[in-house]
Amino acid sequence: MESIQSIKQRFEIIGNDVKLNRAIEKAIQVAPTDISVLVTGESGVGKEAIPKIIHSLSHRKHAKYIAVNCGAIPEGTIDSELFGHEKGAFTGATATRSGYFEVADGGTIFLDEVGELPLTTQVRLLRVLENGEFLKVGSSQVQKTDVRIVAATNVNMFEAIKKEKFREDLYYRLSTVEINIPPLRERKEDIHLLFRKFASDFGQKYKMPTIRLDDDAVQLLLKYRWPGNIRQLRNIAEQISVLEESRLISLATLNSYLPNSSSSNLPAIVGKEKKEGDFSTEREILYKVLFDMKGDLNDLKKLTLELLKHNDSEKVQEENENLIRKIYGDDEEEYAEQEESPSEILQLPEPYIEKPIVKSPQQEDKYHFAEEIQEEETLSLQDKEIELIKKSLERNKGKRKAASAELGISERTLYRKIKQYDL
Fold this sequence. Notes:
Elements: H1 4-11, H2 18-30, E1 37-40, H3 49-56, E2 65-69, H4 78-83, E3 84-85, E4 97-98, H5 100-103, E5 108-112, H6 119-131, E6 133-135, E7 142-144, E8 148-153, H7 157-162, H8 168-174, E9 177-180, H9 188-205, E10 212-213, H10 215-223, H11 229-243, E11 248-249, H12 251-257, H13 279-310, H14 313-319, H15 321-328, H16 332-340, H17 368-376, H18 381-395, H19 400-407, H20 411-421
Parallel strand pairs: 1-8, 1-9, 2-5, 5-8, 10-11
Antiparallel strand pairs: 3-4, 6-7
Helix pairs in contact: 2-3, 6-8, 9-10, 9-11, 10-12, 13-15, 18-19, 19-20
């Protein structure tokens, strides 16, 4: 069995991180077997190195090794790419074609971004994993293949299973052994080492002196989160090597190449993009509405307190003009119109409408009961309104907020009514 160090040299893997070494060690251990392997990790961490290690150390190393990017193949043609098709199976199928599983018989297939596979293709892949059988598109003849599958994904597979975007049975078939590659931000000691390697490579490639970082720039390099991982680090090294005339890179120069470097030390959620229909999105909208309502309630409390202290609505309105506009917005004109027309009548709640019962010995006139009620009603609607406001204020010990809630009107309307009727 080859050592971890010799594997690193052979496949040009840079780093001494414990998690990275453990991932390479697992790849070496499973290589001689035909166990299916699932490689997980964020985009750009170098997942493609693991299947190469597994294939090169297996008994299949002299057979074909095919890497397939499942996310780059259109959904309509991926079945044809993987399993082949018969002539005339679909429009444009002018000849019979062999798929990757037929071509790589006896070898290894690396399915990169396997989480992007359509559900129909997942069913076909599950059959290959179970008994090595597959059907070409447009064919009814079952074919056999002896292929080892190594898959990789940057998708949270449990979330995908929960949302029914990935089959649970296929996941457990693929992940007989799972190998996780740590993100670059968890390999602090390897970041500068990788940068120096990339800088040296690009110096030789473009025939120019190798760039170096000063101490402050090195510290920034280590603090940055590197959301694009090794791929992003390599791109930054290449940009600086080509564009900068000075070969000694300062903190300010490096900072200009790092996007959002000012907030690079803040926590961030990686790989959890919210999509339309997610419950988390709806929940956050409700939270925002509740927080806005809480803010409006606090503003109303402040405005009410000012009214109670000064008892001068015009003065309070002048001093709190911005606050009133913030609370009521365009509705302020509506309230102004209501103040100009004091004919607004309270909508009387049913419990307070007293309907006198008139007993009549004769029921010959079917409208007699209604006529008696009309004659008994001596109070005007305005008098009833005043009476209701007084009773509500007495019951609530003068607290206008509670009274307005009981009457079913706003505090502003209640305040205007009290002022109008001089209560």
